């Protein structure tokens, strides 16, 4: 399907601010599951965008604003052709081996509670893919999804588990922390979900399965990603995929991802399709 996206971010600064430095991660890369047909970035200032690539292979842009100003606005807009790969992610830029994604972070730390939660599906299956599906289902049944707060970093894995409710970013933290404890490299993904009339920005997770590769899991929706998803950035946690980094104190976002359809595939059929690849 073709997904039309518009993502606007406004960062507020103290009045009269000068010499501002900003970095954005708002440009998707193509891979076997998506083809970027067109993509633009626009600024509300005369700053020049300097393209760069971060350590994880994400496409970033840095710019500076001389000022004086009290805000900076960036608008990302484009069209991405997507294909349903039953959650399997191939053809991505991979600067690091999968084992790097076993690394813990403060947001995806395996506390005692997270370890107990992960161990509850440890014996679900000797097959890594089936075990990861069991983890996704268990997470979906244990922790409810709630609306994210755009200006607040998602909950840590531990906090999401204790609260029994979290935004998609917190659910992704819990999934990655639990998967890593079970021995599966896992990473945090940001992107867009095109469904209903407007769609939304969203976080999910990817886990590495031997002989298959990276597989994308969205525990909040209890499914692997479909053609309704556009993959934007990858990192160890939500901090590593933040769409904008600067010294501002307030951030407002507006996202529209149109022409999405809800795929009828169920988790079971996705698991079967992945096992055949």
Task: Using the CA coordinates, give the radius of gyration.
Answer: 19 Å
Largest sheet: 6 strands, antiparallel
| DSSP strand count | 16
Shape: globular
Average pLDDT metric? 91
Regions with little confidence, pLDDT below 50 for 5+ residues: 260-269
Tell me the span between the first and last alpha carbons.
22 Å
Q: What fraction strand? A: 35-45%
Listing every helix as H and every strand as E from the N terminus to the C terminus, the arrangement reads: EEEEEEEHHEHEHEEEEEEEH
Q: What is the share of helical residues?
A: 10-25%
Total count of helical runs of at least 4 residues = 5
Please state the structural category. alpha+beta
């Amino acid at each position: 399907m073709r997904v039309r996206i518009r993502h606007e971010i406004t960062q507020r600064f103290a009045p009269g601010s000068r010499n501002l430095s900003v970095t954005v991660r708002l440009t998707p890369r193509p891979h076997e599951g998506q083809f970027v047909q067109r993509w633009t970035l626009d600024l509300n200032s005369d700053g020049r965008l300097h393209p760069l690539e971060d350590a994880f292979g994400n496409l970033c842009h840095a710019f500076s604003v001389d000022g004086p100003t009290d805000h900076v606005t960036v608008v990302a807009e484009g069209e991405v052709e997507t294909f349903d790969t039953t959650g399997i992610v191939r053809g991505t830029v991979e600067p690091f081996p999968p084992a790097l994604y076993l690394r813990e972070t403060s947001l995806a730390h395996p506390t005692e509670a997270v370890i107990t939660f992960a161990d509850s599906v440890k014996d679900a299956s000797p097959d890594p893919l089936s075990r990861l599906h069991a983890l996704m289902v268990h997470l979906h049944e244990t922790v409810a999804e709630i609306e994210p707060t755009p200006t607040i970093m998602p909950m840590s894995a531990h906090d999401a588990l204790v609260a029994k409710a979290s935004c998609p970013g917190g659910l992704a933290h819990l999934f990655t922390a639990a998967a890593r404890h079970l021995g599966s490299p896992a990473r945090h993904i940001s992107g867009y979900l095109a469904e209903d009339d407007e769609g939304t920005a969203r976080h999910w997770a990817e886990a590495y399965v031997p002989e298959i590769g990276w597989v994308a899991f969205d525990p909040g929706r209890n499914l692997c990603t479909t053609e309704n998803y556009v993959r934007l950035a990858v990192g160890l946690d939500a901090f590593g995929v933040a769409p904008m980094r600067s010294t501002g104190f307030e951030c407002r976002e507006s996202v529209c991802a149109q022409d999405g359809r809800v795929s009828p595939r169920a988790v079971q059929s996705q698991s079967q399709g992945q096992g055949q690849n």
